[in-house]
Amino acid sequence: MTVSTSARPGPAALRRGPAALSLAALVCLVLLALALFASVMFGSKQTPAADVLRVVTGGGDEYLRTVVESRYPRTVLGVLAGLCLAVAGTLMQGITRNPLAEPGILGINAGASAGVVSATAFLGVSGQRDTVWWALAGALVTGVAVYAIGTAGGGSSPVRLVLAGAVLSAVLGAYIQGVALSRPRVFDTYRYWVVGALGGRGFDAAWSVLPFAVAGLLLALVLAPGLNAMAMGDDKAASLGVSPVRIKGAGLLAATLLSAAATAAVGPIAFVGLAVPHLVRMVVGADFRLQIAFSTLVGPSLLLLADVVGRVLLRPEELMVGVVTAFVGAPALLLAVRRMRGPA
Amino acid sequence: MNTARPAGTAEAARSHPAPRQRRGVVRIGPWVSVPVRRSTLVAGAVALVLLCACAVATLTLGRLGIGLAELPSALMGEATGKDAFVLNRLRGPRLVVAVATGAAFGLSGALFQSVTRNPLGSPDVIGLGAGAGAGAAATALFLPDTLPVSVGALLGAVLAMALVYVSTGTGFRSPGRLVVAGIGVAAMATALTQYVVYAVERDKASALTAYINGSLAARSWDDAATIWTVLLVCLPLAALLARPLGIGEMGDDISTGLGSRPGRITTAAVLLSIVLSAGAVSVAGPIAFVSLTAPQIAKRVTRGGGPHLMMSTLLGALLLVVADLAAQQLPFFDNLPVGLYTMAVGGAYLGWLLVREWRRPAV
Q1: Sequence-separated (6 or more) residues with CB below 8 Å from residue B345
Q2: Per-residue pLDDT tens digits for B16-54
Q3: Crossing angle of the two packed helices A72-96 and A203-230, in degrees rounded to 10
Q4: Which of these, A144, A163, A113, lies nearest to B347 by C-alpha position?
Q5: Does B20 map to a domain?
Q6: B167: which chain A residues are within 8 Å (Cβ-Cβ)?
Q7: Residue A100 carries which DSSP code?
């Protein structure tokens, strides 16, 4: 993410025309609607589109209704988690000016996992409502640590932050596995949770993390103009009356809230937070207000579609959405590596 | 992205300070004569003594340990009853495997880091372990009776390295790309592993998780024979590469000027490194960060340039034996796989290394 510092990098240069934007928004909305519909339509039991449509609009027979409605919780969870991860990724990439920043790669998800595992193993905490606080604490501590290590000695190249994230993920991973392996009960719940799956969880999972998600999203929207100013460089932002330190701190807080909410609800899911901001930037340009708004549409669509693919691929078995996103997202990352410029 | 430094004379001069120590020469008959710094010899001897001490501790400590007084006679083959069981079945093979596996990881890391000229260009940082884990998991799920898990790990490791090599577009040369590509490959491998651990039943999942993290529990003499064969075949080959690799670390231009062929040497070293790592992985699972830390410590101990192959080999063995001693004797957790200890400690060490590197104004 390099922003040109030529004559006038004003907002006009970063924005697309209103007609193009409305068209893009329309396309994204249609995509989201399709993803929502696909998420309630596909599953281990095949249900024809016409019947699903009847159920959704309030008709259909008892049996069909039960089948289709059993897919509502995971759809809601998919929307929530997709939104959280996408906005978190957008914020992180904006704040760190790092195209590789993402809650999964930077180790925030590992921090949240460590928090959850510690709470269930040592404090006997159970249930989503209580573990979410621990996920948040773990994510927050890890986020600060990654940023501190990655920017040690001033300056932060993309690879540095990624490395700091990888290092912390490794250490936390060892801790998590150690705890899980020495406590069979924890291991059994942990191995189901750690894959990152939308299925097998109820509406509770969504409700208990909703306040965090909403708080993070509101904070992100409030920060968007400040992030726009910061994209022109810390000095210019300061001269416009924006405090870079405050924006960075608050932005990282919002990103952590969002990733912790998503991780507590559905387990660690990688690459959604990486891919969505890149896709969105291609469409709407560099304005963070638009980036965040479009991320809330594209993130859920992407995660729901990945979940649908996982349901269809091994029918009647299921592939967890975390596995699907890894196998779609990692090749994209490898392609990005090939295109990295310069000798590094 | 400025992790890659220009390889030139200035750089070479900075990282290879003129040796002030006195040099001796080690001769084996009329055939071999190797110049060695005296401090390196001393450090090697200390490491060797420590290794022996840890080996004795591995055999004697704990409730099942062989008494220190009985150890010499037990080693001469006069052990009976409990001691014979502990020596021949329980801890003996485990110790012998630990020494050779650690040595293989250490040597592998030294070769790879010499080629990439970067501590991060170490096979376990760029996804070899994750690939091996995925290979093992996939074999356990899809081909449970046709293929041994260790062969699956081997295939997974080689496949992962091939994928990293292809996706960087510049081979194993640029550390930045290498690391990011390694993370991408590792992410896919880990996702596959987690799916398998989720899909199989609990006991199998637990055993698989232990193997994937790298474990030395319940090794047999067959395992020992495998890894010692790999090590003894590769060691002389590595010794042949030591000198050209040392020249290669001064940069491609200088080494070409000195009559070396960087391309061939690089390929040979990388292949040797992967064979060593894969052999170690197939015996003990992907034990993390030994191949990262051993060469780094060797570099600091010997305080000189060059690939420190022998020192890294020795330190790798020492590190793994110490870690395994901790895994067996530490009271907090019961019999955790040794790989978890090396991952935790090695990860912390890597973090410290990075911070130190980045604090330096030159980078």
Answers
A1: B289, B323
A2: 444 444 556 666 666 666 666 777 788 888 999 999 999
A3: 20
A4: A163
A5: no
A6: 334-335, 337-338
A7: T
Asked if the structure places residue B28 within a domain, the reply is no
CATH 3.30.70.100 correct for A17-22+78-337? no
Query: What is the structure's pLDDT at A319?
Result: 84
In a domain? residue B275: yes
Q: Does B102 fall in a domain?
A: yes
Q: In whole angstroms, how far apart are CA A320 and each of A35, A115, A305?
A: 17, 22, 12
Residue B125, classified by CB atoms within 10 Å of its CB into exposed (0-12), middle (13-18) or buried (19+), is buried
Give B 42-71 residues with CB within 8 A of chain A: none
pTM of the model: 0.79
**Number of compact structural domains in chain B:** 1
Other beta carbons less than 10 A from residue A240's beta carbon: 13
The average pLDDT across A48-69 equals: 81
Cβ atoms within 10 Å of B171's Cβ, excluding its own: 17
Inter-CA distances, A274 with A106, A186, A243, A253, A330, Å: 10, 30, 26, 18, 10
Q: Which of A174, A175, A182 sits opposite B334 (nearest CB)?
A: A182
CB atoms within 10 A of CB B363: 13
Coil, helix or strand at residue B148: coil
Residues of A in contact with B341 (CB under 8 A): 174
CATH code: domain of residue B168: 1.10.3470.10
| Nearest C-alpha neighbor of B290 from the set B249, B241, B349, B334 | B349
ipTM: 0.76
Distance from C-alpha of A90 to C-alpha of A160, rounded to nearest angstrom: 19
User: Which residues neighbour B36 within 8 Å (Cβ) at sequence distance 6 or greater?
Assistant: B23, B24, B25, B26
Which two tokens mark A318? Answer: 């299921």
Q: Looking at chain A, which residue has its C-alpha nearest residue B348?
A: A171
Q: Do A323 and B2 touch (CB under 8 A)?
A: no
* Domain range list for chain A: 17-22+78-337
Interface check B200 vs A, CB under 8 A: no
Q: Give the pLDDT confidence of A188-227 residue by residue, as tens digits.
A: 777 777 777 887 777 887 888 899 999 999 999 999 988 8
Nearest to B210 among A100, A181, A195 (CB): A181
Which among B167, B340, B343 is the nearest to A337, CB-wise? B167
Average pLDDT, chain A: 82
Amino acid at position B195, single letter: Y
